[in-house]
Amino acid sequence: MMNKVPILVLFVSLFLFSCSKKNENPARPSSGKINSISVVIDDKLWYGVIGDSIRNKFAKAVDGLPKEEPLFDINQYPTHLMEGFMTKSRTIIVIKKANENVFGINKDQYATPQNVFHISGKSVGDILEIFEKHTPQILQIIEEGEITEHQRLLNDSILNPKTIQKQFQIVLKVPSSYSYVAKGANFVWLKKEFISGSSSLLISQLPLSAIKNNSDVSSRILQLQDSIGTLYIKGAEPASTMYIDQSYPIYFMKTKLDGKVTYTTKGTWRLKDSFMFGPFLNYMILDPDKNRILFLEGFSYSPSRDKRDLMHELKSVIQGVK
């Protein structure tokens, strides 16, 4: 009987240690709508210059939409509510006054996946300085996390990837909610219909020579995009074809997708002789190995619905290309 006591103590110790480790690294899943963040900050700071700066950075208008929509939906909570359901948010920003100036990022602190950003300062000025300095980093981490989460949600059910893979030599996970509208030798149009409109995904390829050396790349992209719209995207009448409405702002950016040089274009499309229009997002990928340009474009039409999350879905699909 005496020999069993140390064994019992060891068992209890291991159990308590295991529980402790579970509390440090909780396995509960995070939650929250796409493009929503939780900001933990007391009202006195929230309704001052710090709150103004947060709203200016995180609720600024999304580029390329016909009407203004915020980059993120912000849910604000006082610091004493830092518990319960709120700690399951995928993105949490904690801002408070403290005895020292600190910026830190805790990964999966209360749930998984999750990013918790901690900002504290001795004064309002110190907090503001830390926040302004680290905002670009915070934005990048949040935006990458939201794309990853949206891809995870969309990948639950996808179309047979072999069709697209065989035609274009790419891997692109398109949700099964999309179906084929048109298909050609170098073109595919997929569309998802819903009550208030639709979202579309276009895949097309052109010879690499379509972009000439020393040409104005941005102007050439718009010309190529208009030519694709004229050829393939039509309304009820044959003459009603898609074009880029340059009376709205157009945004260009050079980046990389799967290691390849890519030009991104955002703006507004329109159908000729029609009231139909909406936002588009185009990725022109230079693929010298196959001597081609690959166009991946998403556009939506939903006159009575906000467009931000519709376009974010299309962006998430396209950015997963391999």
Description:
The chain is α+β, with helices and mostly antiparallel strands and 322 residues long. Helices cover 32% and strands 30% of the residues. It is built from 7 helices and 13 strands. Strands 6, 7, 8, 9, 10, 11, 12 and 13 form an 8-stranded antiparallel sheet that branches. A hairpin with a 4-residue loop joins strand 12 (277-287) and strand 13.
> Got a strand count?
13
Order of helices and strands: HEHHEEEEHHEEEHEEEEEH
Helix content estimate = 25-40%
Q: Output the structural class.
A: alpha+beta
Chain-wise SSE layout:
Blueprint: H1 4-24, E1 36-40, H2 43-46, H3 49-58, E2 73-77, E3 91-97, E4 102-107, E5 115-121, H4 124-154, H5 161-168, E6 179-184, E7 187-194, E8 197-207, H6 217-232, E9 242-244, E10 251-257, E11 260-271, E12 277-287, E13 292-301, H7 308-319
Helix pairs in contact: 3-4, 4-7
